[in-house]
Design a protein that fits this description.
By secondary structure, the chain is of the alpha/beta class. 30% of the residues lie in helices and 20% in strands. Helix 6 links the parallel strand 10 and strand 11.
């Protein structure tokens, strides 16, 4: 029987992910909050849904979106910094209640390495998260809420900083001054590797696990971003060396051991 996958949040990551599922022969439901994206989803043979998750209700036909679904990928960022009044955990709780009432038994939750503290340590998949930001705290609480459910199994993927497809953090740093933590290790992952790891989770039935996902190369922030600005021909950032550097190094051991996944961009296009 053809496997059916639902992608909640067809944005920068979710849309190319949904396309990759189509290429593998899956039946795919894709949800967006934008009316303008509906036609684009349909053009790629993705069954389009207009769905918005709020703190106390859901707009759109979430029940039909989840109907007969084997795997749900939750790909909605918290956006806490942009909207300080937003309670991401409340949104995930409302969503979890709907998942419980559906046919879904397997969930992939797209999380973030921001759940770990910048304490200048090497972080592995077993490291206990100690988020320092409000966004990180809410993401971790959302993870726990989903994993605690006995109605479905949740696999959590904690992605490092995302880049690819004309998106790169160097563009935000170019020309800026007093950038902190110049010697901190860079933790990034390419879009193609995000898609590859998610597909590997599904292919290997790696349910109920938590994965770190960051490319294995970790140059210093100063070294990496100066090289990247030179490659793109844009002004380099200037760094603040007065304060003590704070950061972390994200390792992805479980991606190797459980998924046998080989990174497509291990060196960050260095």
């Amino acid at each position: 029987m053809q496997r059916k996958i639902a992608v909640l949040g067809c944005g920068w990551l979710g849309l190319p992910l949904a396309k990759s599922f189509i290429e593998k022969g899956y039946q795919v439901n894709g949800a967006t909050t934008s009316v303008d994206k509906i036609l684009n989803l349909a053009q790629h043979n993705i069954n389009p849904f207009l769905i918005a998750i709020h703190m106390n209700h859901i707009e759109g036909n979430i029940s039909y979106f989840l109907q007969n679904t084997d795997v749900l990928v939750i790909c909605i960022p918290p956006r806490v910094r942009q909207h300080s009044e937003c309670n991401y955990v409340s949104k995930i709780r409302v969503l979890s209640e709907k998942i419980t009432l559906s046919d879904v038994k397997k969930v992939i939750f797209i999380s973030s390495s921001s759940v770990y503290a910048n304490d200048n340590t090497i972080v592995n998949d077993d490291t206990i998260p100690q988020p320092q930001t409000e966004s990180g705290k809410q993401i971790l609480a959302a993870e726990n809420l989903l994993k605690e459910s006995s109605n479905f199994e949740t696999t959590v993927i904690r992605f490092a900083g995302l880049y690819g497809m004309k998106r790169h953090p160097v563009n935000q740093l170019s020309g800026k001054k007093n950038i902190l933590n110049p010697e901190a290790p860079v933790n990034l992952i390419h879009l193609n590797d995000c898609i590859g790891i998610i597909n590997a989770v599904i292919a290997r039935e790696a349910w109920g696990k938590t994965f770190n996902a960051a490319a294995p190369h970790h140059p210093s922030k100063k070294e990496y971003y100066i090289i990247q600005t030179h490659k793109q021909g844009i002004p380099p950032p200037k760094f603040d060396h007065k304060q003590k550097t704070q950061g972390k190094t994200i390792t992805s051991t479980f991606v190797n051991t459980y998924l046998a996944y080989n990174f497509l961009h291990p060196n960050l296009d260095y």
